[in-house]
């Protein structure tokens, strides 16, 4: 859709005007009223000086309310300001050593001018670990699992200077999770971090900090999820809009699809792209890896019930610690939820509790790959408010739905199941 809009605008506007319009569109896409302050903050704390440089602990804090980083996890890269090298690491490793031929005897861990660092896997040797490391690059949301909403590693840097006056801040930080989507600002020297250990407080010798914000448009050119609807009061099943996440006839190489009963499915999954993280989705009219189905299932005098089904149509991806963010006006009267954890959220500038973050309880927090077990279900019971409750004009259905932080494509409002005879409800 964005590309179609761009082509249309290009016929009407001058190149400079088009640039300004598209820049503003990208900015709007990066801002989300459901999580306006969401970001990943990276702190680089120098803990000690060495004869040739320093030892630092780098920590990524996920301050996003409903977007986490799943395995294979984060990748962090930067460009050194001088001729620094990574002498040693704990809790992570640099993916390339680079050219260390000028060093005799002991060789640095990485001599790359622009190193890329990844987290260690669980079960790494104890001497290579530090706190908050070794989770395959996974970082939880601050709401879902605060204890695992950070990831850290330690590095010893040489040829860097060994004082506040001689050390230079690295540049061009790039965070991938594991693909694109995050844009990082420049690292700036800030007030030194305080570390509390019992009754003793210590300070980092020097700290610099930067923030990285997420844009769904930068991460993928097409959406990754869509919403379908149904109700007890109307036999109409409203499927996801056609081509919500791409079309079967599209030439876009990442829009691979396969029929669920294809005899070639197993060979495709075990073929040359076995370890690819490019979605391989079940062929549908909407071509989305994830479909969220909202069913208004039951109604009585004081309460009404909703059933939510999340269906994984991606043959290559298990979704661990999945979550939904849903906007609906009746969340201020939520009574009971089954198979879910719940936390209320508030949109920017709003005092109304109409947004919920939902995620699975233990054993229901893993959404398996496409197939017979590739779905999870949960139910929500709402209490009716006589002043606002109605089933008319699609009121029973959500206004917005996010899966793992991605905004899902909703059906058009005029397609929602309407009440045949409102007096019956």
Automatic annotation (TrEMBL):
PANTHER family: COBRA-LIKE PROTEIN 4, PROTEIN COBRA. GO terms for biological process: cellulose microfibril organization; plant-type cell wall cellulose biosynthetic process. Residues 1-30 form the signal peptide. It comes from Rhynchospora tenuis. This is COBRA-like protein. InterPro entries: COB_C (IPR056900), COBRA_pln (IPR006918). Belongs to the COBRA family. It holds the Pfam family COB_C. Keywords: Glycoprotein, Signal. GO terms for cellular component: plasma membrane. Residues 224-417 form the COBRA C-terminal domain.
